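protein under study:
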Amino acid sequence: MGTSDSRLVYSSEDERVRPPAVPARRKSGRTRIPVADGLPPDPGDGFVRLHRGKSARGGKPRTLVVGLPGSDSELNAILKRCKQQMGTGGTRQGRVLMIQGDHREKLQALLEAEGNTVKIAGS
């Protein structure tokens, strides 16, 4: 054990062995916006809006559904139906549904069939 660059992994003597200090990461000049802050706001005007987003997915598209009425359990049920109909994954963050892929036209037809007034937002 006499080498100076060896690191003690386990010892039954004395106290616990402290892990080596982790060097601090360098901070870049940019500040990252959390995903929740990058979501479109709900204007609350009764329209369901379908946005196309790419942030936090490495450039892959996703469809954001904003403005759906209902409780949390109703939103979860709508999300499940949307994912099944589109054959893709998705999640819910707050009151915003996030479906993987650009499925705005298909989601518009699905949500209008359920009685919602839907607008496609953005280009």
